[in-house]
Amino acid sequence: MTPPFDYDLLIVGGGLIGSSLALALASQPLRIGIIEAVPPSTQEQPSFDSRAIALAFGSRRIFEGIGCWSAIASETTPIRHIHVSDRGHFGVTRLDAAQASLPALGYVVEVRMLGQIVYQKLQDFPQVELICPAKVVNIVSEASQTQVQIASHGHIHTLSTRLLVAADGGLSLVRQLLQIPTQKRDYGQTAIIANVATERSHQYRAFERFTDTGPLALLPLGEKRCNLVWTVKNIQAPYLTAVDKETFLAHLQQRFGQRLGRFTRIGKRHAYPLQLLRAQQQVACRAVLIGNAAHNLHPVAGQGFNLGLRDVAALAQTLADAQKAGHDLGAPETLSTYTQWRQGDQHLVTGLTDTLVRLFSNDYPLLGPARGLGLAALDLFPPLKQQFMRQTMGLAVRQPRLARGLAL
């Protein structure tokens, strides 16, 4: 006889990726548990701080399919234009939503607000249980089930599940406990993230400005306000995070220029060391890695979260289809269907971001003119530009139902 399970699906990590997967599957006849160390309503929740992220247009469609875009839309600022340049060199690329016949290329939203909306929607589904505060301490994988030991309120509990999903980020404890090796590339860079106010309106433009220390991105966020993602060399980061606000803004002004006039104000600065991390395998016995637990990218071109959300859409459809067909959610055949679906998109996006970082984050004299020619060619050759936009918007790969705005 089939042994009873505490959960059909146990998700470790209650951040945006894990909670979005739970919401995507919440209408299915599944009992779902989310293991999370920090309550989502607290200020300490690392996935819901004041940072902002850019949702690609493809991610908008996924949230439409999940059923929460209408609540998210009013909290977003659309990106209708993107200006890409290389500091100190000629050649620019201008991307426009009208060229893609879309209302926006993407949308900027504060992470905390997005997380609150997803969790509020989860309250409508009693079969989704938040197990919090809790931390995974051991995993025992068997042919018929996976047992997960958690520490909660000073006690150890054992939970059983048909499938364990690791959505616990780049430092994934689940990945470590499953002894899944990783490939890493240390970029020697740190991202400094903050919100800044500008003298001029952004007019719904995002900026990606490549410099010799790494890309500098500004994302529109409300009126005369932008989210800054400034990549610098590791050796520069301590100074730039500690210096007074006026000095920081002067350095930023010198690197970015005057396209938005003067920078007039800056909020709290956060610093994140950057590396490329890829799990050498994304499935184990009755377990699968998604999001940053599977692939942690450089923030150039804003691809990381959007790639993880496409993992969510594909895995949700794979599991829903398996459930409807009476198949085992944790069977190797089910997980193989998912990994075969996702590997092309993941390899392409990780390769694209890694190439951009290595190509543009240096001051080799001969590369400057070549980069300028490349940006100019992309701007002047519509078919190439269209393909680039479709890829970065998440529209160039096989689309699961959620990515077409359809429910499972």
UniProtKB/TrEMBL annotation:
Cofactors that this protein relies on: FAD
Pfam family, one: FAD_binding_3
Key word Flavoprotein present: yes
Keywords: FAD, Flavoprotein, Monooxygenase, Oxidoreductase
Cellular-component GO terms for this entry: ubiquinone biosynthesis complex
Keyword hit for Membrane: no
Domain FAD-binding per the UniProt entry, residue ranges: 7-342
Molecular functions per Gene Ontology: 2-octaprenyl-6-methoxyphenol hydroxylase activity; FAD binding
InterPro entries with a match to the protein in the record: FAD-bd, FAD/NAD-bd_sf, Ubi_Hdrlase_CS, UbiH, UbiH/COQ6, UbiH/COQ6_monooxygenase
Pathway info: Cofactor biosynthesis; ubiquinone biosynthesis
Gene3D superfamilies in alphabetical order: FAD/NAD(P)-binding domain
GO biological process: ubiquinone biosynthetic process
Family per similarity comment: Belongs to the UbiH/COQ6 family.
Annotated PANTHER family: 2-OCTAPRENYL-6-METHOXYPHENOL HYDROXYLASE, UBIQUINONE BIOSYNTHESIS MONOOXYGENASE COQ6, MITOCHONDRIAL
Complex and partners: Component of the Ubi complex metabolon, which regroups five ubiquinone biosynthesis proteins (UbiE, UbiF, UbiG, UbiH and UbiI) and two accessory factors (UbiK and the lipid-binding protein UbiJ).
Name this protein carries in UniProt: 2-polyprenyl-6-methoxyphenol 4-hydroxylase
Provenance organism: Nitrosococcus halophilus (strain Nc4)
